[in-house]
dTDP-glucose 4,6-dehydratase (Sphingobacterium griseoflavum), 349 residues
Amino acid sequence: MQKTIIITGGAGFIGSHVVREFVKKYPHYRIINIDALTYAGNLENLRDIEREANYFFVKADITDAAHILSIFQEYQPDGVIHLAAESHVDRSITNPTAFVMTNVIGTVNLLNAAKEIWKDNYEGKRFHHVSTDEVFGALGDTGLFAEDTKYDPHSPYSASKASSDHFVRAYHDTYGLPIVLTNCSNNYGPNHFPEKLIPLCIHNILHGKPLPIYGDGKYTRDWLFVIDHAKAIDLVFHQGKNGDSYNVGGFNEWQNIDLVKELCKQMDEKLGRPAGTADQLITYVKDRPGHDLRYAIDASKINEELGYKPSVTFEQGLSITIDWFLNNEEWLNHVTSGDYRKYYEEQYR
Ligand code: NAD
Ligand code: TYD
């Protein structure tokens, strides 16, 4: 094997697509997926590649510093792609401490382990931290987030991610650790956990349940197909400039209400239901506290420096996503049984 790469959070939504991309594209890399398998981690996401000779799974919690160091000592990775995180804003409002533990302490544990085993000889080594556009805060009606936009997080989730970004940069500035960061906009696609807007609405349309729209529904997000995020991570991990960060997005802004209406339209067509059926499920509910009005990414740096372009349009990506959920009802049933129901009742009662 030419290289060993540790990918954290590889059983989650985005992580599973990154693991698949690397396992398939680089058969000469040994890919070690480290994941604690929280409610969001699901090895079913990786069934198609779990028997590949270059794929290994290690169940570990990144908040456990000693365990993480021992895994790094055993596998001696050349690179780390760090995605493990608590990722849902609403959960961060109910339980912020879990976000500090995993997103901040967990990240520092990984940085310490990388620094320790690389012992200041950083030749050929790289720590890629996967972050979010939410660290930049909220935009008004105009403007875009660039790489040098000032950090201004508002939710406990974005505050914890911002903190982890600062630690990654601090390890570069203080110890010379070779790092890159990516800050990506909202992802959607296959295997998306149905606590987030798009898969939650797909699930509820299938079951004839209300589609909860926070506030007036005019909040705006910039959506990128998850496989295009995985491709951007591949590009930046291999070609990004040491110490730099890259914003990733598809110049694809939607107000939540318009997005949900588009989803309703496509779902009615695919399910053979009369037009307007799913629209009737739209229900305005209490707003999320501290709700950021608008996120929008200026992705020109990654485009101009590394030639990055998303591979699908939003229409194509949404259609692929809906088809995947319609063809994988068993996956959806598994993840929406048990704990999910309790969460759902508490969040939307
Ligand atoms: P996810 O919640 O679907 O998956 C997170 C994964 O991390 C799960 O497999 C979970 O088991 C694992 N994990 C959680 N805590 C852990 C711990 N203490 N130790 C080890 N593993 C742990 O998240 P996602 O949506 O796939 O996001 C992945 C990364 O990408 C996160 O860092 C997130 O901040 C970032 N990101 C997400 C989006 C998005 O739209 N979802 C956008 C930009 C950036
Ligand atoms: P979400 O998918 O949770 O992603 P994020 O908060 O990280 O952007 O939410 C996307 C948008 O949809 C956000 O503005 C909140 C809104 N939203 C709803 O209106 N209803 C819901 O039930 C959920 C989960 C989100």
Notes: The domain at 3-188+224-251+294-313 is CATH 3.40.50.720 (Rossmann fold). The chain has a mean pLDDT of 97. The pocket of nicotinamide-adenine-dinucleotide (ligand 1) is lined by residues 9, 11-15, 35-38, 40-41, 61-63, 83-87, 102, 106, 130, 132, 161, 184, 186-187, 193 (CB under 6 Å). The CA atoms of residues 141 and 294 lie 7 Å apart.
